[in-house]
């Protein structure tokens, strides 16, 4: 039996909803989202609708702040990276990757008072936890509707560090990376997102 | 079906075997508890009788002593009158003065004390002994009270008889355990503290002063003894109060002030208290001596034996009156206390022993009695319920928070979110923060392992584990990290214990068996694949214990013509009958299954408003911890109450402006909390009015979802709520 979730207009996963019926919400334009989290909903709706269409994914919706749009992208990125970590944990551990490396680059973990040479999986988890905390910080991001100018400076380190997680996966866990990329297409999502924000920090992006 | 209120769910008309057994068990427990209380009370009364007897003996001895001295003085007087026969009256007067002063000086020092030592030896040691026992008693009492508390907690935890509910709910474990930490209303404590201070200091000086000064300064002689008398009165008063302390076990809601006294008694100075009583009895003697001397001087040696005796009688009467007065006064206080306490009864639930803030408050009250504690202010508001306020916000989830679960005793919260993670929050440190300081609280731990949204989490306190169920159709089992773990510590793969694979579709609800046994701990999961699976989390090998189907045991093969089985939405173990489990389905039916056989035992009349669409489904069910009541949260805004034994709906109400998503019953069993997609959290009085007690809006909607989870802490006055806005809020 399938539930009638599809036919109801409410954007809601009721308890008992089957996986195949979950999130089967109609894609609607941003203006029709009537909530404080319209941008997030819109972005998630876009991803569900067509995650291959990167141009559309990163395209700034009309009338929106670029900062808030980027903020939602970063949040979504952290969210989806959780699932990459889940897969990485199966084969990336202290023994296989004692250092956080991407090709020849080695990174130090910035989640500690003084930067530490954490092993790769620690680095990844710490970075993701740190980024999530920062993005959820009431101090730096009190509102998801407008971002204070002083907090914009955090975008770049967050993005740079998250980007290294992909780099590590690409160089050391290619299979996982590829299956993950196929599943969620996060990498392209991120690249596209970054390229869109190229003007901000392309010069500082590290090659890998 | 939706009956109006006031009907007690009584089992009596049913006379089922488990019902009868339950009733008998609960009666037995109640009786045992009462017996305990009586025994303690008896011991207390005995101690008091002994104390009073000791006092009486002391007074008697004193009387004998004084009589002896009166006779002695009479003898002196006679001698004197003989001598005076041939002398001048002026000389005689001066001599009288001298002789009396000499004799009195001897009185307290040699005669009095000697006689106390020799002839009154029987009285003194007894006094000592009794006093000691009375001061030791409080400690003993608090100990026995602790034992009683735990006992009653166990009793209530197991108890589920609705007949005994009313009594038990008033004496519930929460209430009992609250007591020791409760700050007392300041009015009764202030004088008592003052009295302790005065009595603990002054008696120390009194004995010497009495003995040295009294004989010479007659005017002061009556002054000093007054302290003695006062301190004695107060000590008696004190003893009376601490006696009452015992009664407060009976009337659990009584005795904030008394507990405060208790604290004072224990914390201030046991020794002084003890001494206070001892001194007071000696002071009492010297006082009488002093007074008697005063009389003696006034009468200028013309004192007849009879007169002094009557004075003594008067004195005694006065004393008993005073004491009586004090007794009455303290009784008044006690009755006042009782009244106040009764008013507060309902509030008692909300503040519990180990809330550090309350502890602090009660401590501060001890030190500065005039300063009113926050709790007192709440009482004085005239509202008889605690008003819940948002305390702080936990942000770290990136998408809707679907489920929350508290640790049974600690301030540890697990949250499951649509972002696929389970986070563990340690709020111990945060509880001490002032309301104004709201730092960002980072989760203690983030569990990543699910490949889709997490729909349900549950903490297994005894097992030190966390279970999470996800859209990815797995249940994952996590070890809780050690308390020493740093937020950014190394990744520990050993925390990821195991994964239960067996369901074939999203799992929506997860419940742990309410009682933990060493060998077995059941976990029930409800999945969109149409089944409820029961896992034995302690089992070696395959954890899957059984699978429940909508049509019972034999429905594995789909029979033609039968509609496909409805999907379960929520499960809960029946607390009053632990062999049973209740399951709600998307077709708005609630069924009771036998955990062992897998057979459906009872179908509830719960689909009153079902219209064949999930828009009228049941979202969540929860079962009352002690009563045989089941609460269901409906997508069409209803909350319904069912009798677990009959399956009949006893109450139905439109509870929210939008779908009701989650429910929980407070630890006392008096209040139901509900959260809905209308963003509001509402508290309902279960027992009497069934009205909404409080409502607060604390989440924002994302998509068409609002509040997704509300949970009472099982032992502390905290509420957590999780919403689609990916935020967790803590109220207290």
From TrEMBL, chain A:
Keywords: Metal-binding, Zinc. Zn(2+) binds at residues 92, 97, 168, 173. InterPro entries: MOB_kinase_act_fam (IPR005301), MOB_kinase_act_sf (IPR036703). The keyword Zinc applies. PANTHER family: MPS ONE BINDER KINASE ACTIVATOR-LIKE MOB. This is 8771_t:CDS:1. It comes from Diversispora eburnea.
UniProtKB/TrEMBL annotation, chain B:
This is 9982_t:CDS:1. Residues 189-200 have a biased composition (Low complexity). Residues 16-150 form the Striatin N-terminal domain. Residues 91-104 have a biased composition (Polar residues). Residues 91-143, 171-209 are annotated as: Disordered. SUPFAM superfamilies: WD40 repeat-like. The lineage of its organism: Eukaryota, Fungi, Fungi incertae sedis, Mucoromycota, Glomeromycotina. It comes from the Eukaryota. It comes from Diversispora eburnea. WD repeats lie at residues 394-435, 447-488, 500-538, 653-686. Keywords: Calmodulin-binding, Coiled coil, Repeat, WD repeat. It holds the Pfam family Striatin. Belongs to the WD repeat striatin family. Residues 35-62 form a coiled coil. InterPro entries: Striatin_N, WD40/YVTN_repeat-like_dom_sf, WD40_PAC1, WD40_repeat_CS, WD40_repeat_dom_sf, WD40_rpt, WD_repeat_striatin. GO terms for molecular function: calmodulin binding.
């Amino acid at each position: 039996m399938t539930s009638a979730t599809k036919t109801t207009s409410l954007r809601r996963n009721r308890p008992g909803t089957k996986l195949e019926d979950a999130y089967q919400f109609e894609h609607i334009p941003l203006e029709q989202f009537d909530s404080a989290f319209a941008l997030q909903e819109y972005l998630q709706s876009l991803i569900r609708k067509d995650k291959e269409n990167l141009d559309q994914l990163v395209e700034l919706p009309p009338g929106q702040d670029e900062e808030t749009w980027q903020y939602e992208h970063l949040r979504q990125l952290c969210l989806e990276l959780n699932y990459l970590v889940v897969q990485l944990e199966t084969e990336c551990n202290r023994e296989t990757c004692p250092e956080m490396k991407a090709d020849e680059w080695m990174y130090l973990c910035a989640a500690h008072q003084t930067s530490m040479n954490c092993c790769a999986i620690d680095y990844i988890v710490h970075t993701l936890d740190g980024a999530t905390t920062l993005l959820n910080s009431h101090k730096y991001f009190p509102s998801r509707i407008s971002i204070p100018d002083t907090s914009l400076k955090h975008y770049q380190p967050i993005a740079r560090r998250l980007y290294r997680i992909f780099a590590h996966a690409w160089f050391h866990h290619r299979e996982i990376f590829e299956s993950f990329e196929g599943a969620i297409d996060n990498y392209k999502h991120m690249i596209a997102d970054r390229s869109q924000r190229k003007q901000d920090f392309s010069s500082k992006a590290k090659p890998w | 079906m939706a009956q109006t209120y006031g009907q007690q769910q009584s089992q009596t008309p049913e006379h089922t075997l488990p019902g009868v057994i339950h009733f008998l068990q609960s009666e037995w427990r109640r009786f045992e508890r009462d017996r305990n209380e009586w025994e303690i009370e008896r011991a207390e009364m005995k101690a008091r009788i002994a104390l009073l007897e000791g006092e009486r003996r002391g007074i008697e001895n004193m009387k004998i002593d004084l009589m002896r001295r009166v006779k002695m003085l009479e003898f002196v007087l006679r001698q004197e009158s003989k001598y005076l026969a041939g002398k001048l009256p002026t000389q005689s007067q001066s001599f009288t003065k001298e002789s009396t002063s000499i004799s009195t000086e001897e009185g307290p020092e040699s005669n009095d004390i000697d006689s106390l030592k020799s002839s009154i030896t029987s009285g003194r040691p007894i006094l000592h002994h009794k006093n000691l026992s009375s001061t030791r008693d409080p400690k003993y009492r608090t100990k026995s009270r602790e034992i009683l508390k735990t006992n009653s907690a166990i009793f209530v935890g197991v108890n589920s008889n609705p007949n005994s509910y009313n009594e038990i709910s008033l004496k519930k474990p929460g209430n009992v355990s609250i007591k020791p930490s409760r700050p007392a209303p300041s009015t009764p404590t202030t004088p008592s503290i003052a009295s302790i201070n005065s009595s603990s200091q002054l008696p120390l000086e009194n004995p010497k002063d009495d003995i040295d000064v009294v004989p010479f300064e007659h005017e002061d002689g009556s002054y000093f003894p007054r302290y003695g008398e006062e301190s004695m009165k107060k000590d008696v008063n004190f003893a009376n109060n601490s006696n009452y302390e015992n009664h407060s076990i009976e009337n659990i809601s009584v005795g904030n002030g008394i507990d405060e006294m208790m604290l004072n008694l224990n914390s201030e100075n046991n020794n002084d208290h003890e001494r206070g009583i001892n001194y007071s009895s000696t002071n009492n003697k010297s006082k009488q001596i002093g007074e008697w001397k005063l009389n003696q001087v006034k009468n200028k040696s013309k004192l007849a034996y009879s007169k002094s005796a009557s004075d003594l009688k008067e004195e005694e009467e006065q004393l008993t009156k005073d004491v009586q007065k004090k007794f009455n006064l303290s009784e008044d206080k006690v009755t006042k206390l009782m009244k106040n306490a009764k008013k507060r009864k309902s509030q008692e639930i909300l503040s519990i022993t180990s809330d550090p803030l309350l502890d602090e408050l009660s401590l501060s009250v001890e030190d500065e009695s005039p300063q009113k504690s926050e709790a007192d202010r709440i009482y004085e508001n005239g509202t008889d319920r605690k008003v819940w306020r948002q305390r702080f916000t936990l942000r770290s989830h990136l998408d809707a928070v679907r489920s929350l679960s508290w640790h049974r005793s600690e301030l540890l919260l697990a949250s499951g979110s649509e972002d696929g993670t389970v986070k563990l929050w340690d709020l111990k440190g945060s509880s001490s923060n002032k309301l104004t300081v709201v730092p960002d609280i980072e989760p203690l731990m983030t569990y990543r392992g699910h490949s889709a949204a997490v729909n349900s989490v549950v903490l297994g306190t005894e097992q030190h584990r966390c279970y999470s169920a996800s859209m990815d159709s797995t249940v994952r089992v996590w070890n809780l990290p050690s308390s020493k773990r740093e937020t950014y510590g190394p990744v520990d793969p050993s925390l990821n214990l195991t994964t239960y694979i067996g369901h074939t579709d999203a799992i929506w609800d997860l419940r742990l068996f309410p009682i933990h046994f060493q060998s077995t701990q059941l976990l029930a999961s409800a999945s969109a694949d149409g089944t409820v699976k029961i896992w034995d989390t302690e089992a070696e090998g395959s954890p899957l214990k059984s699978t429940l189907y909508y049509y019972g045991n034999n429905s594995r093969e789909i029979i033609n013509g039968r509609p496909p089985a409805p999907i379960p939405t929520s499960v809960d173990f029946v607390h009053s009958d632990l062999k049973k489990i209740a399951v709600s389905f998307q077709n708005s039916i609630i069924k009771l299954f036998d955990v062992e056989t897998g057979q459906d035992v009872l179908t509830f009349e719960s689909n009153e408003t079902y219209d064949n669409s999930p828009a009228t489904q049941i979202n969540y069910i929860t079962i009352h911890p002690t009563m045989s009541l089941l609460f269901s949260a409906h997508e069409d805004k209803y909350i319904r109450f069912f009798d677990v034994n009959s399956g009949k709906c006893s109450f139905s109400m439109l509870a929210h402006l939008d779908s009701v998503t989650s429910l929980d019953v407070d630890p006392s069993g008096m209040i139901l909390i509900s959260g809905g997609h209308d963003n509001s959290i509402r508290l309902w009085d279960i027992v009497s009015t069934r009205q909404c007690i409080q409502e607060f809006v604390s989440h924002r909607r994302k998509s068409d979802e609002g509040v997704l989870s509300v949970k009472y802490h099982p032992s502390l006055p905290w509420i957590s709520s999780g919403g689609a806005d990916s935020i967790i809020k803590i109220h207290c």
